[in-house]
Design the sequence.
């Protein structure tokens, strides 16, 4: 059966799911077997199944051993790949000039930087201290410095992001920045929005994720449906935190985890039980024969 042909007995054309705090435990990196079974059922009954994550490809290999995943939407929608052969369907990089502008706009606020390439990710060491103190919606249950370090396995720690980037030849797809205080983060947000060239997701009190304008999870899923000729009104996506907000209004049904941020709970189409109660499985199982 061609990938774009849908079995009409199953109500969804596309089932998309976030990872951290939605389907996997951020610290252990594990997905509950019940959630796996529900997503596999969707795949086996005609739906396209897609990961939709802020992570880059190199931070997914140890997680994605499932043959029921069809698509990988990574880096907040910057890159979309077919899971079977890792071929790229579409990608959107950040222009070099914009990356430089972001740095110069915020450097006086002493941010801790993250820079994401497809093949490697750099993080400044002081980010761990910032995030342990200030919190990050994107890290789920990770609270202590040890938990945060474990959650960021696969990121290369560096003292200076600028020195690390000087020897890296590739183009940046995504940036993150965290700050010592929420007040500094508030100031940073005002400056970032004033640039007008960015898609900005606030991931808690002190952290932002940045991609090129118009590049986000929701836009990527919409484009994926267009490319595959899927009925987007029959798509469903699950998420819990800042970078998942863009999926609201871009898919047929957005389902928030009960452990989601207040903004996502407020605007979601539906709410399912929390991650630790296997909410994605609970919601999908009502459509199983």
Sequence:
């Amino acid at each position: 059966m061609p990938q774009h042909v849908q079995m009409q007995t199953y109500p969804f054309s596309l089932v998309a799911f976030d990872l951290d705090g939605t389907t996997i435990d951020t610290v252990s990196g594990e997905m509950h077997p019940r959630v796996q079974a529900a997503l596999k059922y969707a795949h086996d009954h005609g739906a396209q199944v897609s990961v939709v994550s802020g992570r880059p490809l190199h931070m997914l290999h140890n997680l994605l051993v499932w043959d029921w995943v069809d698509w990988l939407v990574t880096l907040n929608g910057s890159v979309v790949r077919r899971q079977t052969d890792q071929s790229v369907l579409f990608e959107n990089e950040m222009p070099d000039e914009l990356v430089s502008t972001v740095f110069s706009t915020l450097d006086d606020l002493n941010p801790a930087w993250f820079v994401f390439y497809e093949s490697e990710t750099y993080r400044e060491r002081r980010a761990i201290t910032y995030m342990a103190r200030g919190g990050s919606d994107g890290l789920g249950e990770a609270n202590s410095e040890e938990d945060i370090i474990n959650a960021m396995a696969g990121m290369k720690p560096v003292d200076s992001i600028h020195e690390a980037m000087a020897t890296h030849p590739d183009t940046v797809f995504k940036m993150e920045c965290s700050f010592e205080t929420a007040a500094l983060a508030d100031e940073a947000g005002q400056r970032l929005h004033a640039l007008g060239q960015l898609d900005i997701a606030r991931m808690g009190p002190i952290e932002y994720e940045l991609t090129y304008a118009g590049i986000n999870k929701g836009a990527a899923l919409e484009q994926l449906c267009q490319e595959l000729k899927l009925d987007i009104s029959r798509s469903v996506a699950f998420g819990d935190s800042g970078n998942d907000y863009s999926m609201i209004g871009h898919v047929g049904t957005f389902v928030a985890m009960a452990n989601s941020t207040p903004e996502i709970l407020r605007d979601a189409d539906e709410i399912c039980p929390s991650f630790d109660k296997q909410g994605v499985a609970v919601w999908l199982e009502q459509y199983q024969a």
In short: The CA atoms of residues 53 and 248 lie 15 Å apart.
